[in-house]
From TrEMBL:
The keyword Transmembrane applies. The lineage of its organism: Eukaryota, Viridiplantae, Streptophyta, Embryophyta, Tracheophyta. The chain crosses the membrane at residues 35-52. Keywords: Membrane, Transmembrane, Transmembrane helix. This is Transmembrane protein, putative.
Amino acid sequence: MFPLIHDSRSIRFQFELEMCFGSVAATVPFARTTFFWPIVCWVLLVFSLGWGKQVIKKSFLHGLW
């Protein structure tokens, strides 16, 4: 799933990510379908972009006042 990097911290991070995704896929039956992960990634992207825009607006407004 993730590229192998020969660094102990990266390997541990990769292992934790795979464990996390594996546990999610094991507990949520819908996570085994191919449509689940693109939807999750898209929703997370939209939320992160929306949250980022709000932060930029707030910091911009605070910078003006």
